[in-house]
Amino acid sequence: MIRVGQGFDLHPFARGRALVLGGVEVPAERGLAGHSDADAVADALLGALALGDLGQHFPDSDPRYRGISSLRLLADVRDKVRARAGRIVNVDATVLAESPRLAGWLTPMRERLAETLGLTVDRVSVKATRPEGLGALGRQEGIAALAVVLVDAPE
User: Fold this and answer.
1) Cβ-based burial of 43 (10 A; exposed 0-12, middle 13-18, buried ≥19)
2) Which residues of the chain have pLDDT under 70?
3) Residue 121's pLDDT is what?
4) SS in 3 state form for the chain?
5) Can you tell me the distance from the alpha carbon of 141 to that of 15, in angstroms, rounded to the nearest whole number?
6) CA distance 152 to 155
7) Is the pTM of this model over 0.85?
8) What pLDDT, in 10s, does the model give residues 36-62?
């Protein structure tokens, strides 16, 4: 059975933190507030199998998850998919950021996500787009990410 999941993540900028997206540190003046760096892909995988959301599995109120790498959470979610005999077919993610420019960092993000998920890089897409000055993201108040995944899982 083919199942689709979608994920969304949004974090405001925070001073004194590194900017880490998809497991890759991107040079920037500010990082993101939140208990991990970016979680849209993991949330999409959980959604594909109707397993709830990231907050249910890794609550930000739990100090064990403060500052944890999203790749570690993603690996845990990957294991949950595998435990249900699911096979991740592909991932398509989009990062929405006015700044910094992310074009030079997209390939390393794809590679880190693919490695974590046990996929070949040609099955992971990471794109970036700018909000063109519109809204909170356009005012450079934070960064958002969207993800869609396809999972083949038994009924």
Assistant:
1) buried
2) 35-38
3) 98
4) CEEEEEEEEEEEEECCCCEEECCEEECCCCEECCCECCCHHHHHHHHHCCCCCHHHHCCCCCHHHCCECHHHHHHHHHHHHHHCCCEEEEEEEEEECCCCCCHHHHHHHHHHHHHHHCCCHHHEEEEEECCCCCHHHHCCCEEEEEEEEEEECCC
5) 11
6) 10
7) yes
8) 666 899 999 999 999 999 989 998 888
